[in-house]
Prior knowledge:
Blueprint: H1 3-15, H2 23-30, H3 38-51, H4 54-65, H5 67-75, H6 79-99
Amino acid sequence: MTAFRAFSLLFVIALGNSAFAGDIERACLGSDRSAANRPLCGCIQDAADLTLSTSDQRRAAAFFRDPHRAQEVRQSDRRADEVFWDRYKQFGEAAETFCRR
């Protein structure tokens, strides 16, 4: 991750965007994961905003409801799924880096 992207993510986190919950944040908050809370899910949404398009975010949010779908996409031979999965991995790495407690 470039220094610019890291700075951008920190800037977005510092501003806070809780009034406008995105697809990822809503899916995270609605999940049955015990660690899901507004600060963590908001941070994950901020990472998504920097790394995923709006349509990618919708697609990724569906993984919270159906984790098996993520596995299907990851194992898919379709080029579009492979390209999406690369972006999704980048999102996951950004979220892990900046939202770790």
